[in-house]
From TrEMBL:
This is rRNA methyltransferase 2, mitochondrial. The keyword Transcription regulation does not apply. The active site is at residue 185. It holds the Pfam family FtsJ. It comes from the Eukaryota. GO terms for molecular function: methyltransferase activity. GO terms for biological process: RNA methylation; rRNA processing. Belongs to the class I-like SAM-binding methyltransferase superfamily. RNA methyltransferase RlmE family. Residues 19-227 form the Ribosomal RNA methyltransferase FtsJ domain. PANTHER family: RIBOSOMAL RNA METHYLTRANSFERASE, RRNA METHYLTRANSFERASE 2, MITOCHONDRIAL. The keyword Transferase applies. It comes from Theobroma cacao (Cacao). Keywords: Methyltransferase, rRNA processing, S-adenosyl-L-methionine, Transferase.
Amino acid sequence: MSGAGAPDFFYREAQRLGYVARSAFKLLQIQKQYKLIKPGSAILDLGCAPGAWLQVACQSLGPLKNGGAVVGIDLKKVKVPSLHCDSRVQTVSADVMKLPKQQVMELSPQKKGFSVILSDMCPLVSGITTKDAALSFELGMRALDLAVGRAANLSDDNFQSEGESYTSGPDDNGVLLSRGHLVIKLLESEDIKELCQTCKSLFKKASWLRPKATRSSSREIYLICQDLQS
């Protein structure tokens, strides 16, 4: 959140440029380095509050005539920021952990899926390192499962307790299009190495990035997965 800790360069720059949070600069760096968002992209932003990534995602689509769409989902009701966003941006208040994939798919343009999925989801931090890392890993696994479905080789009991059925059907498929990209925020732990290996088998490339805008006290790191293989 933009108000966490003492105001720094990124916090002040966010205010100056009209971003609702300093986290905008994390996605700006990701976009500059990897160019994941292209004109016409359909983008899903998981954990979109307070809306800074919605702003950067919409900006990255270019002018309105280029088309594209940005859909943000968060537990909180998120108002689309007035600056840097246009009619291509919409938000939905829902629990990502319980939202069936088919409902997420229906939010995409022509209900065909998304070309980029961004997960900036973060658990309510307790201060207990192992607990927070485990919760973060669970959110990361959920983002991967939403993206690629059964291809992620997730065990059947991973999320069944969260209320989603894993019997065969349309929910077996992910909502990320072939050649699509996935970004997952995680808290550093031993478990995330396994997640990276899984992603390397599914995507053409998977790499780690710690954006410059990340606070020095934070254990946040981003897994950048490029080009989902068919």
